[in-house]
Amino acid sequence: LKNLSKKIKTFVVSHGVKGTEIEEKKLNANVKKKALFFSRIHKKKGLMVTLEAWNEIRPENWEFHIVGPKGDETYEEAVDFINKNNLKDQIFLRDPIFTQKEKDKLMREFDISILFSKNENFGFSIIESLMHSLPVLTNHNVPWKSIEDFDAGWYIKDDKNTLITTLKKIFDCSNDELFKKSKNALNLSKEYEWNVVFPKMKKMYEILN
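The structure assignment produced for this chain is given below.
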């Protein structure tokens, strides 16, 4: 829009969210770590490439849980892939949930969140993950460079090899490294609370007026 005309007033203001009272994530060294995919199960969400990357590594001490409603044939593709590659002991498809109470309970189970999407205009599952102290692995197709700026996860190229390399690094992370990113994730989420976002929106409308 800016390239079309200097006369066009352009603003980038995020959605606002209600802050969470969830405590910082506490990591348990004696149990398997868990990664969460929390989104609609659709080809644009990058689930299949994530499964392919996971299958390349097959980490011993991690699980991957997929939670979301069916959006297209990707659900059946995922089931078929998991079965064919004998991943049922590592990757779990779970029923979708929708209420805030269910989300709060669910996200307490996990250590990181993954959304390797092809396109997002904001990505509410990303902010919801951050609000629950979950570092997020996503890519440059989503407008979340702040994840990189805050060291609140991993913001990488939309490339399978890069995804595999990054997942290997994550699986080798120490508890201290994950805990640091977890704290940063919670801190980043506070940048999107309404008390921060509303003044930006107010200023935008005042300028437009």
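Interim note for the steering committee: The beta strands are 33-38, 62-67, 91-94, 112-115, 136-139, 153-156. The first helix runs from residue 47 to 57.
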